[in-house]
Amino acid sequence: MAPAPTVALPPVIETLIWIAVALLAIGLYLSWTAGRLDRLHARIDASRAALDAQLLRRASVTQELATSGVLDPAASIVLYEAAHAARQAEEERREVAESELSTALRAVFGETAQVEAVKQVPGGEDAAGELAAAVRRVPMARRFHNDSVRAARALRRHRTVRLFRLAGHAPFPLAFEMDDEPPVALADRPGT
Question: CB within 10 Å: which end of the chain, N or C, has fewer?
């Protein structure tokens, strides 16, 4: 048996096939990049919601502790006002209000003696434990959110993303910058 004859394509058809393959590859790459960017934006939305929940929890626990009567009146007022301001802050002032709450928490719970005094009051052990957990979760949630923002920003800076406008009309993601350093006396509580 003789080998089957090979049919050579005319150069124009061969070129068109290669152009179609190249366009398909570019289209797949752009589609994959747009999908990745969309997933990063969804992750930013989810991480921001988690951060907002942790910030709200921290402010709520702080307000509960401030109104519980386990703190002295001056400390109660300072904490209540800072927590209330953080809960009521407009979006453009939110980072400042949350930073002020962190500062107030460090001022009131800067020493272990204050935490120990709270723990001695009935219900104080639970309140101190709940506040310690809340102040430790805020930096983790903020770090996760800012990492998501950093990844999306890096992808959006690519020339291909800008040239083909793969981000659509999504706003440029912004990091949440605040002072989230927990009070040492609360951050070092074992078992919480």
Answer: N
Question: Which tens digits make up the pLDDT trace of 37-78?
Answer: 999 999 999 999 999 999 999 999 999 999 988 888 999 999
* 165 dihedral zone (left: phi>0; alpha: psi -120 to 50; beta): left
pLDDT average, residue stretch 6-31: 91
| Tens of pLDDT, residues 148-184 | 999 999 999 999 999 999 999 999 999 999 999 999 8
82-98: average pLDDT: 97
Q: Cα separation of 108 and 114, whole Å?
A: 7
| pTM recorded for the entire structure | 0.87
pLDDT of residue 117: 85
Q: Which two tokens stand for residue 104?
A: 């107030």
**What is the C-alpha to C-alpha distance for residues 150 and 155, in angstroms, rounded to an integer?**
9
Task: Give the separation between CA 57 and CA 54, rounded to whole angstroms.
Answer: 5
Instruction: Please count the other Cβ atoms lying within 10 Å of the Cβ belonging to residue 49.
Output: 12
Q: d(Cα 55, Cα 83) in Å, to the nearest integer?
A: 10
Residue 20, C-beta contacts closer than 8 angstroms, at least 6 positions apart: none
| Residues 105, 79: Cα–Cα separation, whole Å | 7
Q: Are 83 and 59 in contact (CB under 8 A)?
A: yes
